[in-house]
């Protein structure tokens, strides 16, 4: 199934449920349908499925709550990273559920998204917003926990040529981190460029998308992985 077909399938489900966003495992599948690289992962509806998925992926793993009422998982303590074994996995399932319910008592917890841990790299952000006048606008910057602090980002209208992507990346002061800053390995710039171009394509192909947020996209010498995916519907 193509990325567009996957998106339309989940878009219809979201509309039927009066959701304004795709659940993360839905967004992840759409991104993968467009060829983006993400850590391996699966949606678990119960603890038994979570244990099976974690065993298949191999520890350590990350667990993220899946709920139609929760867009920003970190704000409700709905994420656990570095889960090292089955005992920690089961404890994390219970603690995440308790934390989410304490913040959102009416939340429907459908399960947990279990994903493998990613390697080291430079954390960047790639996003897209739909402007009423200009259409889809793509954003790139240094991401992770620093995006709100430094606001070191650049913007371009979609669609993009390769040369525009290179200029966009170089507009960001932190791009030096991608060039092997202080002796570190140089990041795979071609893989990063493809992420930016793909996000542009997703916005152009799907007018139903209001915004896309991939934060962080962890880039190293081996490629670029989107660790967190969010798709908001218009």
- Please identify, by name, the CATH architecture of the largest domain: 2-Layer Sandwich
Average pLDDT, all residues: 95
As residue ranges, the low-confidence spans are none
Contiguous helical run count: 7
The secondary-structure element order is: HHEHEEHEEEHEHHEEE
Label the structural class: alpha+beta
Set down the secondary structure blueprint.
Layout: H1 3-16, H2 24-33, E1 41-44, H3 47-57, E2 61-66, E3 79-83, H4 86-103, E4 111-116, E5 122-131, E6 135-142, H5 147-150, E7 153-157, H6 162-171, H7 189-205, E8 209-220, E9 223-226, E10 229-233
Antiparallel strand pairs: 1-4, 2-3, 2-4, 5-6, 5-8, 6-7, 8-9, 8-10
Helix pairs in contact: 1-2, 3-4
Description:
- With 234 residues, the protein is an alpha+beta fold.
- The chain has two domains: 3-116, Dna Ligase, domain 1 (2-Layer Sandwich), CATH 3.30.1490; 122-233, D-amino Acid Aminotransferase, Chain A, domain 1 (2-Layer Sandwich).
- The protein contains seven helices and ten strands.
- It has helices at 3-16, 24-33, 47-57, 86-103, 147-150, 162-171, 189-205; strands at residues 41-44, 61-66, 79-83, 111-116, 122-131, 135-142, 153-157, 209-220, 223-226, 229-233.
- Strands 5, 6, 7, 8, 9 and 10 form a six-stranded antiparallel β-sheet that branches.
- Helix 1 (3-16) packs antiparallel against helix 2 and helix 3 (47-57) packs across helix 4 (86-103).
- The chain starts with a helix and ends with a strand.
- The relative contact order is 0.17.
